[in-house]
Known about the structure:
The complex is a heterodimer.
Chain A: H1 3-6, H2 14-32, H3 35-55, H4 66-97, H5 99-104, H6 110-140, H7 146-159, H8 161-173, H9 176-193, H10 205-210, H11 215-228, H12 233-255
Helix pairs in contact in A: 2-6, 3-4, 3-6, 4-6, 4-7, 4-8, 4-9, 4-11, 7-11, 8-12, 11-12
Chain B: E1 3-14, E2 17-28, E3 32-36, H1 43-50, E4 58-63, E5 77-80, H2 92-102, H3 110-116, H4 132-144, E6 150-154, H5 162-177, E7 181-186, H6 189-195, E8 198-203, E9 206-211, H7 213-219, E10 223-228, H8 233-237, E11 242-248, E12 251-256, H9 259-269, E13 274-280, H10 283-291, E14 310-311
Parallel strand pairs in B: 3-7, 3-8, 5-6, 6-7
Antiparallel strand pairs in B: 1-2, 1-4, 8-9, 10-12, 10-13, 11-12, 13-14
Helix pairs in contact in B: 2-3, 2-4, 3-4
Amino acid sequence: xxxxxxxxxxxxxxxxxxxxxxxxxxxxxxxxxxxxxxxxxxxxxxxxxxxxxxxxxxxxxxxxxxxxxxxxxxxxxxxxxxxxxxxxxxxxxxxxxxxxxxxxxxxxxxxxxxxxxxxxxxxxxxxxxxxxxxxxxxxxxxxxxxxxxxxxxxxxxxxxxxxxxxxxxxxxxxxxxxxxxxxxxxxxxxxxxxxxxxxxxxxxxxxxxxxxxxxxxxxxxxxxxxxxxxxxxxxxxxxxxxxxxxxxxxxxxxxxxxx
Amino acid sequence: xxxxxxxxxxxxxxxxxxxxxxxxxxxxxxxxxxxxxxxxxxxxxxxxxxxxxxxxxxxxxxxxxxxxxxxxxxxxxxxxxxxxxxxxxxxxxxxxxxxxxxxxxxxxxxxxxxxxxxxxxxxxxxxxxxxxxxxxxxxxxxxxxxxxxxxxxxxxxxxxxxxxxxxxxxxxxxxxxxxxxxxxxxxxxxxxxxxxxxxxxxxxxxxxxxxxxxxxxxxxxxxxxxxxxxxxxxxxxxxxxxxxxxxxxxxxxxxxxxxxxxxxxxxxxxxxxxxxxxxxxxxxxxxxxxxxxxxxxxxxxxxxxxxxxxxxxx
Lengths: 259, 314
């Protein structure tokens, strides 16, 4: 055992050591019991594989290959699936079982535990994007240059934040089953109505009119703008507003946290 | 000696229900205090205050001189909760190492504590799949790994067999002798008397007794005699050694510390006495003796402490 890594003279601040342990626990939880996230990762990848092999090489309305625009829309779908559900459900499970209370009476601030739930979900969100990108390469070849792709990944992961806050807000007050049910019930219609599965111009008029009120729509538009160079300031502002509202909701739910 | 837990004038209400009513108590370093009371007495609320889960609505709570609502104060605190809710995905060693780091200790502190509570051989197992007794030892290891000055044990031996109980209390006694203050909650009179240096009896949010086990048991009945009898309650109360008399349907319950003396006289008074039973006195009778207050409303499961139920047929 080396004193450098684990000794009391550890160069890492105590808060960071706790965060490290909590993130490791969170990653282990997902690795050792992958069924919880199985569908969150598998669904977007399978859908993407199906649609990309059918339409990937056709040009989309924007002139880009459909596989490229689908990277943005299915990327949004996949990343938001993971980031909305995983931290919220994990917190709700720990709350229901009493495990969150163990953390709360420990000497480590509870905020670290919750931050760790969010951080340990990020690799899985990234895994979805990588899997989709891999499939896209296979069926349509390279449709994006590396810089554009990296910008897209960055936008998707950062754009997951308001959804994570929303998931946590529900997870702070509802049981784990109820959290998953409520979030899916809200999320899946949002996915369809934001044009993440099928292009919006295939949708009925009232859905097209509804889309601008949905945060998933704005994240998808912001992601598409990385490809097309379109002006997406309005989408960015809409996402910032969503983040602010989600943060207020999560803060309120946190103050009502019963552990 | 240093007070590692000080609770002064603590009031706590949930809506119209008063859970704690001006409770004062202390736990000193190197002392084991049992908080004894039936369900609903306010034990959980008191533990919530001491762990910082609840804010005192009035009064003061200090752990090692600090406010347990502050994370830094809780470095001095080790807690074994009633339900730990171990995640299914983590091993024993991972749990105890995590607890060490959260308590500000190196992860390597886990090894000696696993040995101390005797679960070194379980360290690679998933905690969620262990038996109740093994899980309780994992919980104890997690509480001890931070080297707590105050150890809070909330109903720690519920569901443990006798061997596990003994091992549990041996570990606790060693920590107490090394200077830790211990507060345990229980509804079992015998357990409180056997392991604690002082017993604080909590009933309906009030401290109704605080004494050494010897001082307390001297005031408590250790047997209850139950029978159908023609003798009036008022007469039974005058018999020497009778501490209290209650009726339950057509049966009479007599609490006493001297069942032989009472029975000798009672059988002389009533030759038709039937359905005689002599039982170990439970918490119910103890509270009755301490408060003179029938607790039929608090008749909870698990209060019967009798491993030693004696049946005598007349």
